[in-house]
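Predict both folds.
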Amino acid sequence: MSKKNDLQEKLCYKNENAFSKQTDKQKAEIFEFCEDYRKFITAAKTEREFCESAVRELEKAGFVSLESKKSLKAGDKVYTVNRGKGVMAVVIGREDITDGVNIVGAHIDSPRLDLKPNPLYEDGGMALFKTHYYGGIKKYQWTAMPLAIHGVAALADGTQIKIVVGEDEKDPVFCVSDLLPHLAVAQMSKKLSEAISGESLNVLVGNIGCDDPDIKEGVKFAVLKLLNEKYDIVEEDLLSSEIEVVPAFGARDIGFDRSVIGGYGQDDRVCAYTALRAVMEMKEPEHTSVCLLVDKEEVGSMGATGMQSRHFENVMAKICSMCKSDYNDITLRETLSNSTCLSADVGTAFDPNYPEVSEKKNCAIFGGGLVLTKYTGSRGKGGASDACAELVAKIRRIFNDNDVKWQMGELGKVDCGGGGTIAQFVANLDIDVIDAGVPLLSMHSPFELSNKLDVFMAYKGYREFYKNN
């Protein structure tokens, strides 16, 4: 290489697909890791299922329930579960906890259809479930496709009945019908956002009635009878249930070279899974490592299981008190103030089918590695958590020093929109935070796409952050 090219290499920043520069050994490691990930998200399609699977993996890695401990010391591995829909996994570090902890925070909820509290009805000789969509979806994407039903019914006596139908190849699946093109002239003349109404996202669940003429709404009754026989529930039990409708297919490899993963719920379980794997590898880090997996991000992080609740602070207060005999409120405040967080949420990758919404110099590319997003928000950075330059420089150094492929990206052109993450709520706790996650295509659709190198680099980036910050 000439001196001129050497100087250009030194002075210029270049964002490029990094897959071709990986050795055969590195590619094999990436593919092996991503096969585990693909299987994990195929099995865990709801936040409750992710929690259950995460706890199993944590216990295999030597983590124990925080509630089982009376004190904590360096090297201890503990976890706690928030109402079955959030997980915190912690490895206690060698340094005093008030020096700060390293947090990787992700969310495990995804856009979907939720059953309404009183969902079952009959019309036109069919039984259907009424739904209320959850999070930002394109409603038309949820019609005319196979769907599965996942959830839990909480009975009045405290019993919980787990419901999963549509995942086994012998199971039936469900569907939201759509209009045939011949009768859809009016529908197709509407804006995409209006062509399918929220109230029309009703899921077909049955079409055979009972043979008793005295029973009104015989198809609905027949469905209730089937539910009672299989799950021992009655219609009133649906009022105290959390039942979600999700795609009835697993994650698959995409492309002749199998470089891409397509699957439901990768926003944000791709970051949650990689963060979980990273914290599980910590032995006795210098600073305490925290993997924080929360619920409700897709609807504003509200509620007791969302990032805006006091749960994270409460658990950190308990951990601080178990690490220090002289604990007081200032201990918690110092710990949080000295902490650093990677808000592990997905970004958007440049899509050649829709180039008009991206500004190419500031958009992540597929296969370019983990994407840092200095600020999110919409349009004029509204609602953004804007990371300070010093934090960006520190994370950049960690990644560069440890061969983590990374890139910087925005969520679309300035006036095209934007989005939010849990970063702003973490920042409200006086914690330095920056978004760092996997760039996706088809985000918020029932079949999102991620690049395997980016997935692996997220895991590697989170691991090195835990080890070296």
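Second protein follows, with its predicted structure tokens after the sequence.
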Amino acid sequence: MSSQLLTYIFVGLSFATYIAIAIWSRASSTNEFYVAGKGVNPIANGMATAADWMSAASFISMAGLISFLGKDGAVYLMGWTGGYVLLALLLAPYLRKFGQYTVPDFIGTRYYSKTARLVAVLCLIFISFTYVAGQMRGVGIVFSRFLEVEIQVGVIIGMIVVFFYAVLGGMKGITYTQVAQYCVMIFAYLVPAIFISILITGNPIPQLGFGDTLVNSSTYLLDKLDQLSIDLGFSAYTENTKSNIDIFCITAALMFGTAGLPHVIVRFFTVPRVSDARKSAGYALVFIAFLYTTAPAVAAFSRVNFIESIQEKSYLDSPDWFKNWENIGLIAWQDKNDDGLINYSAGKPFEGSRPIFSDEFGSQGQREIKNLPTLDNSNEVYIDRDIMVLANPEIAKLPAWLWL
């Protein structure tokens, strides 16, 4: 059975499961449609909240950012985690107790001001559109690679599926669908991380393997990553390059922005009591921690594997994963010195931040890039950070069922 057929089977079964759950738990009243009848168990609500929080930004982008930013990427861990704690402890339970469903409703009622409510609505729309744009791009990247379609088509497919079970099941259907989503996502994230941790460090716990020595070596993983980064012209992986005020401002912005996400706040209205809302917040934090504590390890593993699998290799002999992602434009190679070897280092490979492809293929068989090369550095490789988590099992040569 081909890997592409396996992909279609896995994706089809996942969608069928989500839609079946939405039909089984579809809303039969207005109360069930908007707040799931306020009858969701705190543990199930915690899993659904975690699935809400562990969206494409957390599942795909966070480890990708840390992989390229190193220690500086920790601001995203701190910001998003802090945002959830802020929401769960200081905001959501009190909104529930106050009797309002959204932050704008709370602000308008608390301060007796329609103007304040309007300002809160505009802020919420801005935050929501920014958030949704990132999620939809993540959906597009997943579908573009595994269903072999354009990113735009992948976005449309994802929107149709979500629209179907959201409209059919309402909040009740979404809640139980997200419980299933959490199980699928955490399995898909942890299992490859465990296998790769064993391959690289011999430690089956990624969170510990992240700080362990390499297999058959006394060198620590992070020490090797520091040296690789320095050799390629980057800052050491474990070195901070941002100032303290920069770290503080980014973390604060992420905390306050994510604390206002409406689709997470409404989760605390789907349980019977305010005390249950607090319990579900605690359960969600535990469920979220499985992914958030694993992300730095996944980032480090993927960075080491990525560098070692392509550096100074002939493009004609480049691994299959490289050409698979190149076909959809999320990796690109620009041979600046005409030696046929892939050279990855600090700097942009061409003018602009992204490759502009033509429909033609070059002499080496790669997609032709229309951008002019940037000749002030030796880097020949463009890579989209968002693919690091998805490509990691492929790069590590894990069995197909682990990365489909």
